[in-house]
Automatic annotation (TrEMBL):
<dbReference type="Pfam" id="PF02738">
    <property type="entry name" value="MoCoBD_1"/>
</dbReference>
<feature type="domain" description="Aldehyde oxidase/xanthine dehydrogenase a/b hammerhead">
    <location>
        <begin position="1"/>
        <end position="94"/>
    </location>
</feature>
<dbReference type="Pfam" id="PF20256">
    <property type="entry name" value="MoCoBD_2"/>
</dbReference>
<keyword id="KW-0560">Oxidoreductase</keyword>
<dbReference type="InterPro" id="IPR036856">
    <property type="entry name" value="Ald_Oxase/Xan_DH_a/b_sf"/>
</dbReference>
<dbReference type="InterPro" id="IPR000674">
    <property type="entry name" value="Ald_Oxase/Xan_DH_a/b"/>
</dbReference>
<dbReference type="Pfam" id="PF01315">
    <property type="entry name" value="Ald_Xan_dh_C"/>
</dbReference>
<dbReference type="InterPro" id="IPR008274">
    <property type="entry name" value="AldOxase/xan_DH_MoCoBD1"/>
</dbReference>
<dbReference type="InterPro" id="IPR037165">
    <property type="entry name" value="AldOxase/xan_DH_Mopterin-bd_sf"/>
</dbReference>
<dbReference type="InterPro" id="IPR016208">
    <property type="entry name" value="Ald_Oxase/xanthine_DH-like"/>
</dbReference>
<keyword id="KW-0500">Molybdenum</keyword>
<dbReference type="InterPro" id="IPR046867">
    <property type="entry name" value="AldOxase/xan_DH_MoCoBD2"/>
</dbReference>
<protein>
    <submittedName>
        <fullName>Xanthine dehydrogenase family protein</fullName>
    </submittedName>
</protein>
Length: 727
């Protein structure tokens, strides 16, 4: 096996005048080198909807860290020495590093000619555009209701919010091992969506999909980053050129230069009546997509669609664009789109409450959507009782009737996201061997969320076998049933439904076989620990199988499929599978002289519908809440122009155990309205959505109204807000 390393651009924006890797290729121990001159015969760009990111840079580099050349050598040290021998001549170009700068008159364009792109289908009220204006690769819009309602609003409030950029900071790296020959391509890789990855690699390398096999081992953390092409194209290309297997593994520092969360500028205009009733909301969101589009259209769609929050409106108008800048590409990140939208929406709800003199709790309850009420026309109904969830966290924090103490404050917030993926299909297969061992085949990727345990538990419950009888088989795109990807908290609600149906199908086949052998109607038979039960009498199943099929035995197979039905009336082309809700309450103490915020208590709650694995559900909510807490108080990627200042592990501040509040409470609700097995809903993202706004609302409460509208809530920003309030 060879080891790959890449040469990255030191410039944020530059034309590639020349790239000469001849000296590197001659170094002892080097077996393959890739530059722009080695892309012949490939379609060498990739992306979700917009194909704009090259395998290696061709005409220009667009951010500090853009890949210019790659080397495969006997070991990493030799590969790194070879990179020093690659001669590159750059012609620096002006760079843009923020969304407003990128949209300004006279700003340099990252792409002078529009890259190829496709538009997904949408339903009533939703629309999209490719490259609607300079440096905007994709824009999503949604509108419903009559805009004339603005004229009868008693108050109209306009506010602007800034959302910071974070790194996914998964401890397990981006890594691929690839081998390639004339027969095909085989990869072992850390991906969250092996089937779409196979499709994209087939296009890039001009191979039929049946000549590309993707294996996915235990991936570890991803948080949305490990979708589509990352390390795979370079590993495959080097394997083709060298004729040897190639391992390409990024360092933690290189992870900072691969994908980030979207920073955002959000402008929100809200019309209300004097009594607090919400009437209309208009929003414009500018996502910082970075240098390449990656999954930004998916995030834009969600950020724009989720801006109304969990409230009832007569008119909604949302617009969200992906703005290209000369910074690290941005893509899906836990709760993607909803984190940005919730920060602005829930902060403004408290600001409106203060302006109208209404308690923030009462204002929310007054305007909440009811259980079963459609989110927007044509969409599915809200499947959690929003009032019940808010009351649980409010009661735990002691919100009602609390005594006001100077410098201490309490804040609430509610986050909402459509879950289950857009129009996502999932298949599953369950095999039962002669001795009752069960093999579960499905494409959900284990990224630390415990999906393999939960799905195996569904099968065990349906078939009434012990959990340790169920084997979760490794993912291999040649043999594993299709799954669109592990994202949008879809594992238990979508793939889980396919798994449940596959288990039921396998059970049916076993009982039909037993019915034929025993002469009893199927409806009178049941399974229990691989025994047949008929009117209280137990009959061992194994002798029946061996007696009919012989000593080799037999395997019963069940198939399952799940997907939301398409609808032309659903804005996103298919109704939402389920709604993932997060309720958060926070209590803080603020030092008025320094602006330091101390988080004393954090309460987070999500609705699992029915908890297949209670410990997993709790862990997901708590992990999400800690990530939200970090973004609220300190975690961010800090840039000086186009230069990332804290792009390595020792400089990038992530939460530690000592950062946890003295009181940290999670409440896993089981309201029972989910579409998944036994009423389950997806979890894992909702707990992050409202944390930052809840803490900001608590800071405003503690300081008598000092409002911070940009993340994180650093002491400098808090102190500035206090000074502005005093002025």
């Amino acid at each position: 096996m060879l080891h790959a390393k890449v040469l990255r651009s030191p410039h944020a924006h530059a034309r590639l005048v020349s790239v000469d890797a001849s000296r590197a290729a001659r170094l002892d121990g080097v077996h393959a080198v890739v530059t722009r001159d080695d892309l012949e015969g490939l379609d060498p760009v990739y992306g979700f909807f917009v194909k704009d990111q090259p395998v290696v840079a061709t005409d220009r580099v667009r951010y500090v860290g853009d890949v210019v050349a790659a080397v495969a050598a006997e070991d990493e040290a030799t590969a790194l020495r070879a990179l020093e021998l690659v001669d590159v001549e750059y012609e620096p170009l002006p760079a843009v590093t923020g969304v407003e700068e990128a949209e300004a008159d006279g700003a340099p364009e990252l792409f002078e000619e529009a890259p190829r792109g496709v538009l997904p289908p949408y339903g009533t009220g939703a629309s999209v555009q490719l490259r609607p204006r300079k440096n905007v690769s994709f824009e999503f819009s949604y509108e419903t209701g009559d805009p004339a309602v603005w004229d009868r609003c008693d108050h109209v409030f306009e506010d602007t919010f800034v959302f910071s950029r974070m790194n996914h900071f998964h401890l397990e790296p981006f890594v691929t091992v690839a081998r390639a020959d004339e027969f095909g391509i085989e990869l072992w890789t850390s991906t969250q969506n092996p089937f779409p990855l196979r499709k994209e690699l087939a296009r890039v390398f001009g191979r039929p999909e049946n000549r590309i096999r993707v294996h996915v081992p235990l991936v570890g953390g991803g948080f949305g980053s490990k979708h589509n092409c990352k390390t795979e194209p370079i590993a495959v290309l080097l394997a083709q050129l060298s004729g040897r297997p190639v391992r390409y593994c990024l360092t933690t520092e290189e992870g900072f230069l691969t994908l980030t969360q979207h920073a955002a500028l959000l402008k929100v205009r809200t019309g209300v009546m004097a009594d607090g009733r919400f009437v209309a909301r208009e929003s414009e969101v500018l996502l910082d997509a970075g240098a390449y589009t990656d999954g930004s259209p998916l995030v834009a769609e969600k950020a724009g669609y989720r801006m109304p929050g969990p409230y009832r409106w007569e008119h909604i108008s949302s617009r969200c664009g992906c703005v290209m800048t000369n910074t690290t590409p941005a893509g899906p990140y836990r709760g993607f789109g909803a984190t940005q939208a919730t920060w602005a929406s829930e902060s403004q709800v408290d600001m409106i409450a203060e302006r109208l003199g209404i308690d923030p709790y009462d204002l929310r309850v007054m305007n909440f959507k009811g259980l079963g009420e459609p989110f927007v026309p044509g969409e599915s109904g809200i499947d959690s009782d929003l009032r019940l969830g808010l009351e649980k966290v409010a009661a735990e924090i002691g919100y009602h009737g609390r005594e006001r103490v100077p410098g201490r404050g309490v804040g609430l917030a509610v986050g909402l996201k459509d879950g289950g993926g857009v129009n996502k299909p999932a298949q599953a297969r369950v095999k039962l061997s002669t001795d009752g061992t069960v093999y579960l085949h499905c494409g959900s990727i284990e990224v630390g969320q415990g999906i393999s345990t939960s799905l195996a538990a569904v099968v065990a419950e349906v078939l009434k076998v012990p959990l340790d009888h169920v084997v979760y088989t490794p993912v291999n795109t040649d043999t594993t049933p299709f799954d669109q990807g592990t994202n949008a908290s879809s594992g238990i609600a979508v793939t889980g439904k396919a798994v449940e149906r596959a288990a039921l199908d396998a059970r049916r086949r076993v009982l039909e076989f037993a019915s034929e052998r025993l002469g009893h109607p199927v409806e009178e038979l049941d399974l229990d620990h691989w025994n047949l039960v008929h009117k209280g009498e137990t009959v061992p199943l194994v002798p029946l199988i061996l007696g009919h099929y012989g000593g080799t035995g037999y395997e019963f197979t069940g198939e399952g499929f799940a997907k939301a039905a398409n609808s032309e009336f659903a804005p996103l082309d298919a109704p939402c599978v389920f709604w993932e809700i997060g309720w958060v309450a926070a209590e803080v103490e603020v030092d008025p002289e320094t602006g330091v915020v101390s988080l004393d208590k954090l309460v987070v709650s999500g609705d699992a519908g029915h908890a297949i694995n209670l410990a997993n559900c709790r862990g997901q909510d708590e992990g999400a809440a800690v990530m939200g807490m970090a973004q609220a108080l300190f975690e961010e990627m800090r840039y000086d122009g186009a230069e990332l200042l804290n792009g390595e592990a020792l400089d990038y501040r992530v939460p530690m155990a000592e950062d946890l509040p003295e009181s940290f409470v999670s409440i896993t609700q089981e309201q029972g309205h989910g579409p998944g097995p036994f009423g389950a809903k997806g979890m894992g993202e909702g707990g992050m959505l409202p944390v930052a706004s809840a803490i900001a609302n608590a800071v405003a409460d503690a300081t008598g109204g000092a409002r911070v509208t940009a993340l994180p809530l650093s002491p400098e920003r808090v102190l500035r807000a206090i000074d502005e309030l005093r002025a």
